[in-house]
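Hey, resending since the last one bounced:
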Amino acid sequence: MSAREVHDALHGWAARLVSLGAVVVTRLRPGLTWAEAREVGGLHGYDLTEEVAALWTWRDGVGARPGRAPAHLAPGQDFATLDESLRRSREYLAASRAEERAGTAGTPWQPHWVVAVHGHANPLVLDGSRPGPETFRHDAQADPLVVARSTLPQRIARWHDMLDTGTWRIAPDGTWDVDLSHLTEVPHQARTDVT
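The structure tokens again:
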């Protein structure tokens, strides 16, 4: 999986959100250059790959607007800057190591994991040790062997599916609306078009 494939999938997602009137697209920050992303990674002790950094070289998070509701890349998913995401990732690592020392650890946070978006109860994580890179929702209590993993373009294709089924919608005010009654019982079918 190349950074270009990640960018293409994200451009397709943003284009779809523009067509639906989502406010989040008006709040996306400009992307970092590859050199800027590497520099930010170095400040936090990460040797980022282009594929991991691709999310932030596309756009560097969503800007906050004082007095306005937060704008999410997908429902409940806070897309922070690379700097903030790496800071959160290091905080998770420090907390996980403290839990290990105390003997209370679940699935330990790994040094090569990067928070992609923070939301719901568990962050969406990019696993920088794997080609692609793979994404997954980190739950310290879940068995890592049963956690669903997918590349970022595959995950974005699933987001398109959520719009297709009506489970996710853009409300008239441009924010997200979620209706779980539209979830299908049919297993997810991978989309071949990720744009």
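DSSP finds five helices and nine strands in the chain.

Sorry for the duplicate.
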